[in-house]
């Protein structure tokens, strides 16, 4: 007999403002407990020393987390010049120190070389897997694994402050970008070393930063709910963003109620769309009757919407 899942069947995305000195998984578990959710997952880890936007998917929204993992992200980072560490951040051991003789023009010129499509070698202290284990597992044992450079894109890199041995930058980048590696590479190019002393993620995809929710806010609302006997559905659930927001970059199609029922059972169906969609395109899928989000489908060679990620409803859609 299958074990019954504990918790509420709550679906949606919380934009958590992750604080310092807590792992992304620890943050995820705290959100899951606060919402009494049966299922939760995050969409791209932030290191304990990093803060900022961490979208936490609850319930059926976890099926669409990959789309946020693949999304562009924006960071504000402070680089400390003159020092290189094993982890390229403040947590690592110092492996090199050099005098900082960098002009503002040299800094700007160096930053220009990183803009656009580039190759980046991931840090040994990353979560990338090698033979089933994250690279940091080997790094902590002093084992260095050869890593291939990966294609990334730095859409923008702007310097917002340069004082002494500190540089503040705003970086808009593609998936797979390691800001620690970017800062370490910048330090090597400048000839003075550098590491990340502060890192704050301000944006994932198009989610606005003013929608972020802190743990303090969650705790205050939970205390209010308990004191005034307010249901979680009334006090916490309004903080959630609809799960189809994770795939809003995809074109959308609509299904009739009849086609919807077949779609929810995994069958390719005919669809309605305001524009022509080419075969192989992933699309957001809704029902014409009530505009309920049904999942993500792919337009197949027969011009049908074939289910790829389907929302499971606790009651009829």
TrEMBL record:
Pfam families: TruB-C_2 (PF09157), TruB_C_2 (PF16198), TruB_N (PF01509). The keyword Isomerase applies. Residues 251-311 form the tRNA pseudouridine synthase II TruB subfamily 1 C-terminal domain. GO terms for molecular function: RNA binding; tRNA pseudouridine(55) synthase activity. It catalyses: uridine(55) in tRNA = pseudouridine(55) in tRNA. Signal peptide: none annotated. Transmembrane segments: none annotated. SUPFAM superfamilies: Pseudouridine synthase, PUA domain-like. The keyword Translocase does not apply. Belongs to the pseudouridine synthase TruB family. Type 1 subfamily. This is tRNA pseudouridine synthase B. The lineage of its organism: Bacteria, Pseudomonadati, Pseudomonadota, Gammaproteobacteria, Alteromonadales.
């Amino acid at each position: 007999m299958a074990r019954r899942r504990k918790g509420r069947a709550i679906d949606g995305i919380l934009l958590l403002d992750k604080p310092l000195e807590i792992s992304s998984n620890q943050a995820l578990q705290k959100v899951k407990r606060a919402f009494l959710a049966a299922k939760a997952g995050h969409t791209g880890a932030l290191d304990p020393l990093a803060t900022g936007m961490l979208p936490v998917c609850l319930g059926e929204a976890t099926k669409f987390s990959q789309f946020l993992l693949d999304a562009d992200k924006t960071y504000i980072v402070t680089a400390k010049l003159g020092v290189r560490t094993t982890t390229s951040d403040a947590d690592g051991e110092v492996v090199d120190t050099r005098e900082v003789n960098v002009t503002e023009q040299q800094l700007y010129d160096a930053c220009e070389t990183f803009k656009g499509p580039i190759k980046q070698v991931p840090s040994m202290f990353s979560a990338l897997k090698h033979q089933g284990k994250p690279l940091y597992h080997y790094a902590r044992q002093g084992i260095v694994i050869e890593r291939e450079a990966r294609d990334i894109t730095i859409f923008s890199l702007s310097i917002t402050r340069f004082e002494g041995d500190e540089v503040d930058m705003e970086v808009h980048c593609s998936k797979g970008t390691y800001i620690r590696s970017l800062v370490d590479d910048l330090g090597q190019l400048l000839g003075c070393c550098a590491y990340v002393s502060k890192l704050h993620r301000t944006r994932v995809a198009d989610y606005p930063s003013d929608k972020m929710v802190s743990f303090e806010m969650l705790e205050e609302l939970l205390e209010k709910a308990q004191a005034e006997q307010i249901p979680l559905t009334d006090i916490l659930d309004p903080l959630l963003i609809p799960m189809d927001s994770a795939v809003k970059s995809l074109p959308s199609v609509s299904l009739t109620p009849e086609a919807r029922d077949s779609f929810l059972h995994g069958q390719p169906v005919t669809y309605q769309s305001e524009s022509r969609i080419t075969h192989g395109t992933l699309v957001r899928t809704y029902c014409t009757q009530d505009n309920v989000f049904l999942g993500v489908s792919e337009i197949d060679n027969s011009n049908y919407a074939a289910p790829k990620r389907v929302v499971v409803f606790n009651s009829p859609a």
